[in-house]
Specification:
With 310 residues, the chain is an alpha+beta fold. Helix content is 37%, strand content 30%. The structure holds cytidine-5'-monophosphate.
């Protein structure tokens, strides 16, 4: 029996993420910012089914607004499949069915999760058997957040966010996400942060040459203590996202006044993430936010990275 007959299709799930800490350093010559972040993978996942094909094609379905998701070579999942084929000398192709649940351009790494899922799916489908470090290297070439989507759990990211070290984490953290109908562009948010820092240079002072994750965050993750983590949440991009999307500020205030331990912009946003003390508190907050006219989801973390299922 050929491999194609034995494995007609492979299904892979990959998680979205929340940056529970994101310190942005200076802009580097390559156009990226040096950063230090703590990622947590959460139970809002993308799914990809890969089947054998002569070419490289894809289709997208999902529970989120799919406007602006390309289904050609601009899509990171298809680029991931092509990159794996090129690097391994695999001569066939693949058809990818992507089912999206992570908001598009929402700051939760949905596109990165698709790319990580495509790498794992094609590696299994084509039986190319890359090692973890090899897959990680390809992931980092696709985007700063792709290695974490591959790894999942809780991790500290430095460099562009792609140099990962696992972080000890215990227990479960409950989050309520508020999604936005319209996404924001990540490069635009970083650009807005640079402009903000330039305008307020005197007040802000020098930017850390070597950003690092605060010890309190590591402590809270290790202890599995949501209240401690809530007090240590930080996102340097938040000021820039709120400038581009001033409407988010009142939702952050509403969530914090309605039972969240703390609220934060997820990555470059516009998704908001509210950390809650217990699953019950999260369910209550979700209902309140929905009643206030928002789209709210209850998720938890940490969860594993991209993996074959079913
Ligand atoms: O790597 P990725 O495609 O996710 O990054 C999108 C954009 O976000 C980059 O082109 C860059 O403008 C910005 N970025 C950055 N510094 C990082 C990560 C991303 O400036 N560490």
């Amino acid at each position: 029996m050929t491999i194609a007959e034995e494995f007609p299709s492979v299904r892979v799930r990959a998680p979205g993420k929340i940056n529970v800490y994101l310190e942005v350093g200076a802009l580097q010559e390559d156009g990226y910012h040096e950063l230090a972040t703590a990622f947590q993978a959460v139970s809002l996942c993308e799914e990809i089914v890969a089947t054998h094909s002569d070419g490289f094609t894809m289709a997208v379905t999902g529970t989120v607004d799919l406007d602006g998701v390309p289904v050609d070579d601009r899509n990171l999942a298809l680029r991931a499949a092509r990159l794996l084929a090129a690097e391994t000398g695999y001569e066939g192709g693949v058809h990818l069915e992507v089912h999206k649940q992570v908001p598009v351009a929402g700051g939760m790494g949905g596109g990165s999760a698709d790319a990580a899922a495509a790498l794992v799916a094609c590696d299994a489908l084509w039986d190319t058997r890359l090692s973890h470090p090899e897959l990680h290297r390809l992931a980092a070439r696709l985007g700063a957040d792709v290695p974490f989507a591959l790894k999942g759990g809780t991790a500290i990211g430095t460099g562009r966010g792609d140099v990962l070290n696992p972080a000890l984490a215990r227990g479960r953290f409950d989050w309520v996400l508020v999604t936005s109908e319209e996404g924001v562009s990540t490069p635009k948010v970083y650009g807005e942060l640079d402009a903000h820092r330039e305008r307020h240079r005197v007040d802000i002072g020098p930017i850390a040459a070597r950003p690092s994750v605060d010890a309190e965050v590591l402590h809270a993750l290790r202890a599995g203590d949501p209240a401690m983590l809530a007090a240590a949440l930080r996102n340097d991009l938040q000021v820039a996202t709120l400038r581009l999307r001033p409407d988010l500020a009142s939702i952050l205030e509403y969530g914090e006044a309605s039972g969240a331990l703390a609220g934060i912009v997820s990555g470059s946003g516009p998704t908001l993430a509210f950390l809650c003390a217990t699953p019950e508190h999260a369910a209550e907050l979700r209902a309140l936010l929905e009643a206030d006219g928002h789209t709210a989801l209850h998720v938890h973390g940490p969860v594993p990275g991209a993996r074959v299922i079913g």
